[in-house]
Specification:
The chain is 33% helix and 22% strand. By secondary structure, it is of the alpha/beta class. It has two domains: 5-106, Enolase-like, N-terminal domain (Enolase-like, domain 1, 2-Layer Sandwich), CATH 3.30.390.10; 129-327, TIM Barrel, CATH 3.20.20. An eight-stranded parallel sheet has the order 5-6-7-8-9-10-11-12. Strands 1-2-3 form a three-stranded antiparallel sheet. The mean pLDDT is 95.
Length: 336
Amino acid sequence: MSSRKLTVKTENWSEEPFAISRGSDDNFDVVVVELEQNSCRGCGEATPTEHNQESVSQSEMLIENIRSQLEDGLSRTELQQIIPKGAARNAVDCALWDLEAKLTGKRVWELPEIFLHLGKGTFSEPENVTTVYSLGVDTPEKMGDLAQKNAQRPILKIKLSGEGDLERLQAIRKYAPETRLVVDANEAWTPEHFNRYVPELMQLGVEMIEQPFPADYDSVLKTLDHPIPICADESCHDTADLDRLVGLYEFVNIKLDKTGGLTEALRLQDAAESKGFRTMVGCMSATSLGIAPAFIIAQRAKIVDLDAPLYLYEDRPFPMKYDGSIVQPPSPELWG
């Protein structure tokens, strides 16, 4: 095998201010991995998050620690054993997928492992998907205004924070009466919030509630009725989490920055579906390079949340193409 050349770099990107229950951001850092071999270059991007006890420097260190193995031909299978789940492994794993596609002259979805995962009897290009458009936490008035501006979108994802959430949703439903709604509390609710809000959310047509309780307190979900399906996000990182989540959740949210790349995300989607979970695909703040690999998981996901590039002031060359909320497959110049 020809030797590879590894490049690791950090980039900062600016985005529209966006708030969740834990705070607000208007920029984010990503780690980008580039692997060059035989005049081909594979790229991967990941977003380390403080909530997952990650930093840019820590992610870079994890990657630099395996520089010699990567440049000597480390495989994706071997990678899963030497870097833990998380952003660092995601950047490397996705770069390896991209490099394999470039070296073989195939699109990534034509590679055997993904082709079999997609379950296609005969090959065809992946289909466009419809993403949610997320509204960050704000006052009911401002969220109502945003909902009115985006009322033509098929599905909105509403970030919530606890007190005042019902008023937020009532304002949104008033100005987006036909739009499908899902909500995400990012661990901010108590059981009292849940019992008070869920009957009202049913009346407002909310279709799914994402991570209402802290991950270390979600066992309380076994004691509560679920007239609206509940989705695990912070509670589900990889396949090792699934057994504990049976009976607590109906959905799991697959994010490549949590799973540590597309390889484990594919395994997680298969395993989750085999246990009766429906799947959602989500993202951290990211550029189109971070979103492109998740498009593979989106092909089977029941809910798609790949809207991060829509908030960027600038994106990468050859970005993901969005027609409103419709997302097209990535171009080969971007990834895969």
